[in-house]
Each structure stands twice: as C-alpha cells, then as structure tokens.
C-alpha cells in the first residue's frame, strides 16, 4: 500500500521487510557458500588476520570464525590499554599499508590503524569473516581434523541448549591466542599431543619472537597453529605487546598451508 505524506510517498510495510530480506539472504548465501572451505581459521587476532590475508591472496577459500563482535583480538589495547603497537621490522607493515615510525630501534604503529588495515586487507583479498560465532569442537575423521563445530556466541553466552552446525575445511588454523582453544579441544581426548599442557612460559621477548615463527606449523594432521597459540602449545615464553611475531607467524602458516594444499592437488 502506498501512503502519501506531503511530497513523499512511502510503501507501507515494505522497506522494513526489504531491509531484513536483503540482510538475511546475503548472510545465508555467504554461510552456505562457506560450509566447505580450503581453510577455516579460528580467531581474528593479528595472527589469524595476517594468515587469512596471505591464504586468500594465494587463492585459497578461507573463512575466519571469531567469537567476539569486534575482530582484531588483542590488538586494540596495545600495551596496558595504550593503543600503540611496537614491532621490530616494517616489511609486513608495508604490505598492509600501515604507517609506522622508527623510534629507539623499533617501529611504532597506531593500534586502530593496525587492526583495521589487517581486517580490511584480509577481507579485500577474499577471506570471509564470521564474527559472533564460536568454534566449540572439531570435526575429526580417520585421525585428521576436517573442520569445526560452531555455534552462535549469543547462544553460548546465554547457556542455551541449542545444537551447533558444522563448517568443513581441508585445514584448520588455530589462532585463538593464549588458550589455544582448538588444540585444547583435541588434547582433551588426546593429552599425549601436548604432554606439558597448554601454557606459555615467562616473559622473554627475543626467544618468544623467534620461537613463535619457528614453531608455527602443523601440530596434528589437518591442524595448524599460529600466533600466541604456538607459545601456549610449545610452552614458549610470552613476549608482551610486540606484534611482529604474530604477523610473521600468520604469514608462515599461510605459506605452509598453501604449499601443502597445492602439492596435494598435483
Ligand atoms: C589479558 C591479555 C594478556 C596478554 N598477555 C600477553 C602476553 O603475555 N604475551 C604476549 O605476547 N601478548 C600478550 N597479550 C597481547 C596480545 O593478546 C597478543 O600478543 C596478540 O594479540 C596475540 O595474537 P593472536 O593473533 O595469537 O591472538 P589474539 O589476539 O588473542 O586473538 C585471538 C582471537 O581468537 C578469538 N577466539 C578465541 N577462541 C575462539 C573460539 N573458540 N571461537 C572463535 N573465536 C575464538 C578471540 O576472541 C580473539 O579475537 C595480551 C593481551 C591481553 C588482552
């Protein structure tokens, strides 16, 4: 029905439902398109976003599952809530177009620019990001991780008895940060995988920054770790608010996964 108000003419009851319709149709289409993927990344912190950018850029179908409303993980707060980021070198910053200045041998960037640039570039490269969605379990077939079991964050927060759904992938990348949540899902039933338990060690920046990149890789068939999850899984030291290792770890995971998936095609 059309209603005229002065010179304006409204379609009563149309615009409201059309807004809902386009949102629902687009979201459902995106979800259906991403039920099967090359890579599922759990956690949209710096390691996950960097990994997603390089994977999508390599042409792999990549999806990120992020529990929170905001993406960026631990970036936003910099150190102790001071939203400035410190890094040792600037090569990856240049790739993401992030402005940085050199100070006392370190590169300093703005945390807000850092988080948004990583998210923008990952998204523009083709990675799909589903926020407000939580990975609660893994799909495991013949001793290989083949995807994740997910639920809505709101459902989890409310503690509702609602079944999840599944998102399949050839590879899962755990970038959940300190708790290494995806690896933890596996070690609950396979404790021998991480005999020392999931926990990072005391602060030691140089050792941690080198170790987090060195140890980034496949920890179980189909399951890779990057970022602070690596420190937790390999009991490496923590490194505090320095983010170069997170980006390099995400980049290395993407390189290893791309090589693996491309070689398995040939
Ligand atoms: C309280 C606190 C303590 C910190 N301590 C240290 C420290 O000791 N050493 C250090 O180097 N840095 C520390 N940081 C800085 C910072 O967190 C990390 O260096 C950096 O952000 C880690 O990057 P990441 O990509 O590995 O993970 P994060 O930035 O932590 O991102 C992980 C993301 O995964 C999401 N996520 C987790 N589990 C799930 C799930 N099941 N499903 C969906 N999403 C999930 C989280 O919501 C988050 O957005 C700390 C930050 C905070 C807030």
Brief synopsis:
The chain has helices spanning 15-33, 46-57, 91-95, 111-125, 153-158, 181-189, 205-214, 228-233, 244-265; strands at residues 2-5, 8-11, 36-42, 62-65, 84-87, 101-103, 106-110, 128-130, 133-141, 144-152, 165-174, 217-220, 223-225.
How do the helices and strands line up, and which of them pair or pack?
Elements: E1 2-5, E2 8-11, H1 15-33, E3 36-42, H2 46-57, E4 62-65, E5 84-87, H3 91-95, E6 101-103, E7 106-110, H4 111-125, E8 128-130, E9 133-141, E10 144-152, H5 153-158, E11 165-174, H6 181-189, H7 205-214, E12 217-220, E13 223-225, H8 228-233, H9 244-265
Parallel strand pairs: 3-4, 3-11, 4-8, 11-13
Antiparallel strand pairs: 1-2, 5-7, 6-7, 9-10, 10-11, 12-13
Helix pairs in contact: 2-4, 2-9, 7-9
Flavin-adenine dinucleotide binds at residues 42-48, 65-68, 73-75, 77, 134-135, 175-177, 181, 227-229, 238-241, 246.
Rg is 20 Å
Bound molecules: flavin-adenine dinucleotide
Low-confidence stretches: none
- Number of helices in the DSSP assignment: 9
Fourth-level CATH superfamily of the largest domain: FAD/NAD(P)-binding domain
Count of individual domains? 2
Termini, distance in Å? Answer: 59 Å
Mean pLDDT: 94
Order of helices and strands: EEHEHEEHEEHEEEHEHHEEHH
